[in-house]
Amino acid sequence: GNIEQAWSFENKVASFHYLCHSNLVTKNVKVVVSRSNLLVDSFEQIMRLKPHELRCRLFISFTGEEGLDYGGLSREWFFKLSTELLNPMYCLFEYAGGNNYALQINPASSVNPEHLEYFRFVGRFIALALYHSRFIDNGFTLPFYKRMLNKNITLADIETVDVEYYNSLKFIQ
Fold first, then answer.
1. How far apart are CA 18 and CA 140, in angstroms?
2. What CA–CA distances, in Å, run from 122 to 85, 87, 93?
């Protein structure tokens, strides 16, 4: 059998975390952001970092607030920034529709002239969350994840996002 299929999801996650932690850079990176300008401050600082610096321990602090980041501030930063960054009002993402609150790329995202840089930022941010084992506030559609993993999207995947579109495709098939 295929070894990849034999591994349980839990084993894959454990292996991923092991590889991340064994590749951790011992240097620290400090990120100072204002709560009132969270998105722009975070964008400017994270996009300035070199790729190897993304593997450093993150120390998050909020402007004008005392406190050391023993994990709580970075957890808060990941959650609050993901809530803001993935908010459909910025036109980068939209809800899949109906009662499906999974996110997909908004076809009108180019209304923001910096949308491509912000998508790069989203990629870095998600990579940081995965690398540092942090949660983000929302999730994406199955086809979105499959595209990120360079996997083929099937007709059944489309059904998870848009049943009406899926039925139309099935009809003409």
1. 25
2. 8, 12, 11
pLDDT at 56: 87
Distance CA 113, CA 42 (A): 18
The pTM of this model reads: 0.83
pLDDT score for 2: 57
Q: Which region holds residue 25: left if phi is over 0, alpha if psi is between -120 and 50, else beta?
A: beta
Within 10 A of 64 (CB to CB), how many other CB atoms are there? 8
Topology adopted by domain 3-91+110-138: Hect, E3 ligase catalytic domain fold (3.90.1750)
pLDDT band at 3 (very low <50, low <70, confident <90, very high): low
Report which of 114, 166, 122 is spatially closest to residue 143, judged by C-alpha positions. 166
